[in-house]
Amino acid sequence: MKKLAVFDFDSTLMDGETIDFLAQELGLKEQVATITKRAMAGELDFYKSLLARVTLLKGLQKSRVDEICTSLPLMSGAIETISGLKERDYTVVCFSGGFRNATKPACERLGIDADFSNFLHDENGMLTGKVGGEMMYGDAKGDMIVRIQKLLGMGRANTLVVGDGANDLSMFAHADTRVAFNAKEVLQKEATHCIDIKDLRGVLEIA
Asked: pLDDT tens, 76-87?
């Protein structure tokens, strides 16, 4: 039977938060990380927090963004986990409230079938502080997973999801196997399984 696995990107497939790495370049890591932490805990509206954080990136060179994003650290066990799932006939997809500058190279490296994330707007090679895309809202992942399930002819019974933050709640609502990976309490409450060490290979014991 064909199965679907959907992974969050930041702090799940990748060890850290993309936007924090970018903010560090401007000396704003702590300011941005504080907003990120509250958003992932469900204390802030995801859309509003995303806009606030991306605004702080205005003026960063796009070439530098791409350079940082192609060298982000993968989570321990990510390569083995995706490979193992593919061997078990899973279609593997990545959803990210972050940016395609980061998800595209990482997912190509991992052999993931498709990635859905947001786009940082730039003009003349510099970030404008604006962002667009289908993963900007708190319920975006839930909306997208339903569309993919219909496209692939799959249901929640053969869907596995893995995430760490509040914006993963909406996709958790459409999967019978829900893995909270080093997750915030708000997500752990809705999970069927919790992994509390930084090693994705635990997913293979659940899938």
From this structure: 999 999 999 999
